[in-house]
Structure prediction request, 248 residues.
Amino acid sequence: MPLHRRAAALVRPGLFRFSVARFLAALVLLFVAAPFIEEVRNGALIDTALATVVMCMGVLAVGARRRTLVVAIVLVLPAVVGNWMHHLWHGSYPMEAVVAGRLVFLAYVVARLLIFILRAPRVNSEVLCAGISIYLLLGLLWALGYTVVALHDPNAFAFSVPPGSPHVMARFTAFYYSFMTLTTVGYGDITPVSKVARMLAIMESMSGTLFVGVLIARLVSLYSAPGPAEPANAPGNGPAPTPPPGNS
Prediction:
């Protein structure tokens, strides 16, 4: 790869400029629309379409290099195809396979964006958007994990909400519980009962706290680090070395 292309790949993780910002916008749109999708007509179609847009934006957000782009496309195809097959031919494609495809792809996106933040030479809009995207993706990943647990064990979670409220750990309910756990708020209306559900809740609360701490530390270190073009005798770097006698 030429030198200028390598430098560009380090500056941004996405295929195009502001690809991560567009991915973040798609994530925010999905989360904002999530509580209303279940109440409108053709809500399942809208949910499937929004999920497809998010995953396609995810491919662009991590596809700066040919290898990562190819891997992202290979991982996203089963997720997108399974998503639409489950919607169009409900029951012919297991929900567990749909959730597993999303989990694998989104985990890859999280890993690539995290590597980009750790290797970034400075703080810019792409780094900030990548950090926020990872935090939102963590909540989405754990929501998918809770959905899988509830599919295999319907009694894995106990609900203390009114009878008219949903008592199924899926879709927006899983989003809600995941982000309440990620932010360590926890209103107590949904309680993990099974050991697997409790372990997932512990791991999510720990991952949310650790990620915020690591992200803040990384951003502070990038912001306070001197630029690559800063001269050695710049203010704050100490006095310039004295030349040895006889070289004047």
Notes: The beta strands are 157-159, 190-192. Residues 79 and 101 are 4 Å apart (CA to CA).
